[in-house]
């Protein structure tokens, strides 16, 4: 597949080459796709016949010849260039500690005494006002850190509870922190006044400010003890606090410390099905009922929103090729998302000049258009409430429950059959993802453990030493059937399946997957100078 960007017409062409169509209608094969300019209304792409075949390989000499400068372009191989500059950056010392302790009961790695001293000293100096700018520890970081410490003390197995070094560091710093921390953080760190051993009464008496925080504090008491919430409780909190409102980079509504503790706490406790359903469905009606596309089938692709940093993401190109066969697809995501901050479909589309600010109704029209057949929807347009959390999500470091549920969205419905395909990495989330797909009422669902937990599979052979967890190319799914042997869920019969895809079974020679962080050719797309044409070949 190659792309041709014409600066004069602001149009980008995708040409599918050597397609052997399985569609009985030959007019829908061997076609080309092009993106209209950003300000050209709702059109994202169209097919356009092309008879010429231009092929070129861009190398450093070609780039130099074009006179391109780094300042003239966003480098899609450096995804951090897409991070919004107005977002305050987290303190790296505390962020590294959060990566160790704000995770699951078996994955948590306790801090050494030296590490704990450094983190607590950093927090103390920050709340005293001794650190400035990027050295400051944000309220969200402090809330997430102490939530992790509290949940570990209250409910984690002995091997991932506090280390002796952490205990000694806390014994030294807590009397000082108690005089410097705000009440909401003291509550998070010691909600019942029993962890620190100083008879703290702030935590037990804390109720929050206003009705919104009162509901959040009530939910947090259960979470910090290692417990779980009901469907209505989770949805009530989310709808109360979102969207976040900011002024001068700071939240003007609910306490960021409390909200970050809520989000990371639920992930550390491993969410129940009802909690995941609440996150998944909470904002379905934010912009009103989902538009219904008049198509016979529609496949929703749920890639991890935080992108890829090591391997190529092929879903955008798969959707383009599928459209040539008359199969409709809907992609969704964001431009940049923590914690990985990798390359996303929205970055690729923006880099190629496509319009990524489509409304749901504009995307519906593209899906229905026989000359288009697929669309991309940004969370910024479809779920502004959830999009408002991006900055806070960077400061809690680890993925919250939303990282799972945002992959199983139905921004547009179809009159015909619908399918959802989602990527996963960590074992234990494949069944919850399939559960959410069934809750969506789709006809079939598939989860794929591709490279980096995305949907792109590998052609390399499975390593003989691989023994822990599912291998790359593991798939699991269901399809709706009318047989007596299928299991029933929500009144619908489903036939389940699982398999490990071996590339050799499909006549692919085993090869190592190219690494985008080591091979620049995958992302070698360039912006053209005015009046010149740039061609990129894959």
In summary, what is this structure?
GO terms for molecular function: glycosyltransferase activity; GMP synthase activity. InterPro entries: Nuc_phospho_transferase. Helix content is 34%, strand content 14%.
Describe this structure in words.
By secondary structure, the chain is α/β, with parallel strands linked by helices. It folds into two domains: 92-270, no CATH class; 292-483 and 491-531, Pyrimidine Nucleoside Phosphorylase, Chain A, domain 2 (3-Layer(aba) Sandwich), CATH 3.40.1030. It contains 19 helices and 17 strands. The strands form four sheets. The chain has an eight-stranded mixed beta sheet with strand order 10-9-8-12-13-14-16-15, with helices on both faces. Strands 4-3-2-1-17 form a five-stranded antiparallel beta sheet, with no helix packed on it. Helix 3 (113-127) packs parallel to helix 5, helix 10 packs across helix 17 and helix 11 (273-281) crosses helix 19. It starts with a strand and ends with a strand. 42% of the residues are buried. Residues 1-73 and 520-538 have low confidence and may be disordered. It comes from Gossypium darwinii. One of its GO terms (molecular function) is glycosyltransferase activity. One of its GO terms (cellular component) is cytosol. This is Anthranilate phosphoribosyltransferase.
